[in-house]
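User: Structure please.
Assistant: Input sequence and predicted structure:
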Amino acid sequence: MARIKNRLKKNSIMNYVAVAVLTLFGIILSVCSFNIPFTTSTYNGFANSISLGLDLAGGISVVYQCDIAKDSNTKDLDTAIDATVTRLEGVIGGKYSEATIVRQDGNKIRVEVPSVTDAQEIFDLIGEPTPLRMTLKKSTSDEDIRIRGTDISNVQATYQKKDDNSNEYVHGVSVTFTTEGARKFESLTNDAANGDKEIYIYFGDNIENVDDCLTLQCSSKITGGSTFISGSFNSHEEAERYALQIMSGTFNVSLDLISSDVISATLGVEALRLAIIGGFVGFLLILILLWVRYGDFGFLAGLALVIYLILMLFFLQAISFVQLTLPGLAGIILSIGMAVDGIVIIFERFREEYKSGKKIPLSVKNGFKRAFWPIFDSNITTVATAIVLYILGTSSIQGFAITLLIGVLLSMFMNLVILRYLVKWYLPLNSVKPKKLHLPKQQIRSLEEDDNTEIVVEEVKEGEIL
C-alpha cells in the first residue's frame, strides 16, 4: 500500500515538474525575442509574430466600384467580380501578404493593406492597370489583337541569361497563360514562326504610337503555356512593377475608386497596449478569485489557463489567414471568459458532489462527468455561431469570429483534457484534506471515509481516479 502511494506521488510530482518546464518554455517562446544561436536569424516570439489587422497596425483601405471591363471574357458581373478578387489577391497578396481583398455590397471590392506607409503605391498598383495585348503586326485595333490580358493567369518579374552565351542576365517578366490563353499563344507563335518571326506586345490602353511596343522574336511554335518577355527593364524592381501592372490589366472588371482611407497606427497601437494591460490585470484577478474559491484546484486552473493562452498565441500566429483586429481582441476576451466559465462549472459540480457526502476522488470524477455535457453543448453552439459569422460576416465580424472560434475550441481542450489531467495528478498528493481545496462541510458524512486515512486503496489504483 505504501509503495503504491509513494509511486503515485512520485509520478504526480514528475508530471507537474514536466508541465511546469514546458509551460515556462512556452512562455519564453510566446513573448521573448532573441537571436537564434549560430544563425543570422532572429526569433520574434508568438505574440510578436501575429499578423495585425488594419485597425491595429494602420494602413490603407480602399473601395472600388466594379463594372465589366472592355477586355473581359465574361458578361456576367458576379463572375467577373469573383475572378477579379482572385486576381487582386495575386497582385497585392504577392507583395503584401497581410492584405485582405473582399467583395462588398454586391458590386464593390474592398482592399485593406495593413502596415503600409506609402498609400500612393497601392493606388498606383490597383488604380493604373496596364492591359497587355499581343499582335502579329504593328497595330492595336481589335481585329488584330490575338492575346489579351484576360488570357493571362500570372505574371512574375524574373531574369534569364542572354542568348549570346555570356554570363550577363536580362531582366523581364514571365507570363503564364490560362488554358484558353495557352492555346491562343501556341497558335500565335506558330503563325509568327511561319511569317515575320516577330510578335508585337503592347502595354496600356492609350497607345499614341504603334511603335511603342516590345517585340518577341519567335522562330518556332512555343508550347507549354508560358513565355519570357524582356525589354528595356533597367532593374528587377522595374520589371516587378511592370509585372504587377500587367496583372492588374488582367482584371475582368474596371475598377472605379469611390473611397480611400489612410489609417494611422497610433490609435490601434494605443488600443492594443490598453487591451494587453487590461487583459493582464483581469487575468491576475481571475487567478486570485479561483484560488480563493477553489484552493489548490484554483491554482491548477490558473496553470491550465496559462497553457491555454500559450496555445492561443501559437495558433494566432501559425494560421496564415488570421489577422488580429480590435473585434478579434473581443473574441479572445470572450473565449477566455468561456474557458473560465467551464472551470467554474466543473469545480462547482465537484463541490456539490463532495457536499452530498462523497469522498474527494469520487466527487472529482463525478464533477467532471456531470460538467462534460453542459460545457460541450454550450461550446458547440458557440462554435457553430462563429462559423456562420465567419462565412456571412464582413471583414471586422470575421476577425471577431475567427478568434472566438479558435478560443472556444482551445477552451474545450483545456477544460476537458488539460485540467482533467492536472487534477488527476493532484489526487495522489491530497485526497482527504478538504481545507486545501476550500471545500464546504459535508451534509452527510461518508461512511467509507476515515479522517485519519490519507488514501483508500480503491482510490489510488492507477487509471481509476478519473
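The radius of gyration is 32 Å.
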